[in-house]
Structures are given as structure tokens and as C-alpha cells.
Amino acid sequence: MNKVALITGASRGIGKQIAITLAKNGFDISLNCRKENDEVIKIKEEIESYNVSCLIVEGDVSNFEDSERITKETIEKFGKIDVLVNNAGITKDMLLLRMKEEDFKKVIDVNLCGTFNMSKNVSSYMMKARCGRIINLASVVGISGNAGQANYAASKAGIIGFTKSLAKELASRNILVNAVAPGFIRTDMTDVLKDETKEKILDQIPLRREGTAEDVANVVKFLASSDSSYVTGQVINIDGGMLM
Ligand code: NAP
Fold first, then answer.
1. Nearest alpha carbon to residue 28 among 9, 8, 1
2. Residues 6+ apart with CB under 8 A from 3
3. Which residues partner with 86 through β-bridges?
4. pLDDT tens digits, residue range 67-79?
5. Which of 21, 101, 166, 188 has its CB 3.0 to 4.6 Å from that of 217, i.e. a possible disulfide?
6. Which of 18, 20, 34, 184 to mutate to test ligand 1, by most ligand atoms within 8 A of the CB atom?
């Protein structure tokens, strides 16, 4: 029987690559997206080409009822969830003086509350199974802070505290909870940055290149595998040495 991974926000970017990488490694995939479209159907087809099953589950992780339903539909299809990857995330960058209350709340709602909603629903199944992995997408800016990203950095710092607390709560049930903290990864999220900003960030990266979604997915693969069975409550930076 294949292991089952539920990945949120897997319609593109890092989430899509995590889904494909885990599928290549024999996981059945529950692929969450906000809205199914042709691109998502292509991802499902690619996943199925690796001889595993794929379920597409629409839903907004910032909505608790949606999170309940995403979890339930996954359990109905596969009977279990071995790995939850809380990947869905957004940015609404702005200096504090100009940041609207709704822009602060929206980013916290999707990134941090979405991680809470999914973890709460999925962990109740994992607790009964007495095993599981929860892998949260934090960010280096949740550790270092970043001007113009007070909302995003706060959400990612929150995810780090949440990860460590959950790791302590769930360890006795053999559920391991870790986070990855990517640095500057090339996706739609970073494509919107000005060239000048990108150059400045690259100057701070000892490896002198932007990261790829594969760079992140490979570390998630490790955290989802039996190779990391003695690792919990950790935050692994994937940033080319940017933050050390
Ligand atoms: P991305 O290309 O913008 O993709 C974000 C994904 O999240 C999309 O699939 C999007 O779905 C989904 N999503 C957004 N809001 C959602 C919601 N409410 N419910 C369900 N899904 C939702 O971003 P990315 O670069 O791949 O980032 C993935 C994760 O890595 C995020 O948590 C991000 O904060 C983190 N991260 C990224 C970087 C980076 O440099 N790229 C660095 C550090 C951390 P739609 O297609 O429907 O919009």
C-alpha cells in the first residue's frame, strides 16, 4: 500500500514540485488547489504517469470548513494521510505605514491560520494511526524579518513557533512535525520582484544563484521519508547559505 501525501496549494510553484517529487517516490497524492483548471489536470496526469494515484481537492485552506472537507475527501479516497505538507501561501508586500489592516489579516489567515486549520484536521487522523509527518513551509524572513513584509514575516515566524509546539505535543503519537525555510526560490511569488531587488537578494546568497522548486521539494522528500525518523521540531533553511 502506497503512502499518502496531502499537499496544499499544489497548483503551481513549490507545491506542484513537491507533489511531483513525492509521486516519483511512490506516494499517492491528494493535491489541494483553490480551483481546478487545465494546469492542475496536467499535474494530475503527470503524477499518475508515475504509477500512483492522484486526487484533486479544491478548497481554501484559510476556511476551516474547507480544511475539514479537504481532509475528509482525502481520507474517503485513500483511507489515511501519512504526510501533510502545508505549502499554500501568499504575500501582500507593503511598508507598514501603507499596509492595510485587511492585507495584514489576509496573509496571516492563509499562511498561519491555514496551517493551523489543516494541521488540526489532519492530525486527528494521524493521532489515531499513531504515525504521521507534518511539514510546514516557513521562510527565512520568518527568522530574519524583512522590510516590506511585516505581515508575511509574522505569518512565517508564527509557523515556526507552531511547528515546534506541535512537534512537542504530537511526538508521543509518533507524529513528526518540521518546517522548511526557503530563501529566494524562483516561482510566480518571486517573479513579481523588480530586477534590481532580485540582484540585491542574489548578492546576499553565498551560492550565487536563486533556488529552484526542486531544491525545496528534495528536502521535503527527506522529511517525508524514513531517513528522517529521528528529526522533529526542526526548521531547515533552504537558502543557498543566505541566512547563517
Ligand atoms: P506561488 O507560486 O505563489 O504558489 C502559491 C500556491 O498557494 C498556489 O498554488 C496558490 O493557489 C496556493 N494558495 C494560495 N492561497 C491559497 C489558499 N487560500 N488555499 C489553498 N491554496 C492557496 O508560491 P510559491 O513560491 O510556490 O510558495 C509556496 C510556499 O513556499 C508558500 O508558503 C511560500 O510562502 C513559501 N516560500 C516561498 C519562497 C519563494 O522564494 N518562492 C520563499 C520562502 C517561502 P492558486 O494557484 O489558486 O493561487
1. 1
2. 26, 27, 28, 82, 83, 224
3. 136
4. 999 999 999 999 9
5. 21
6. 34
Q: Each residue of 33-52: pLDDT tens digit?
A: 999 999 999 999 999 999 99
Give the containing element (helix H, strand E) for 32.
Answer: strand 28-33
Q: How far apart are CA 101 and CA 209, in angstroms?
A: 35
Give catalytic status of residue 152 as yes or no.
yes
Quickly tell me which residue has 487545465 as its cell: 38
Radius of gyration of the chain (CA): 17
Place of cell 474517503: 76
pLDDT in tens, 81-138: 999 999 999 999 999 999 999 999 999 999 999 999 999 999 999 999 999 999 999 9
Q: E strand or H helix at 217, and its extent?
A: helix 213-224
- The closest-lying atom of ligand 1 relative to the alpha carbon of residue 211 is 40
Query: Which residues line the pocket of ligand 1, CB cutoff 6 A?
Result: 8-9, 11-15, 32-35, 60-62, 87-90, 110, 114, 137, 139, 182, 184-185, 187-190
Nearest-angstrom CA–CA distance, 78 and 122: 13
- Reading the block at residue 216, the C-alpha cell is 525545496
Sequence letter at residue 108 = I
Give the relative orientation of helices 38-48 and 13-24 as an angle to the nearest 10 degrees.
20
Give the pTM.
0.98
DSSP 109: I
**DSSP for residue 111:** I
Mapped onto helix, strand or coil, the DSSP state of residue 180 is: strand
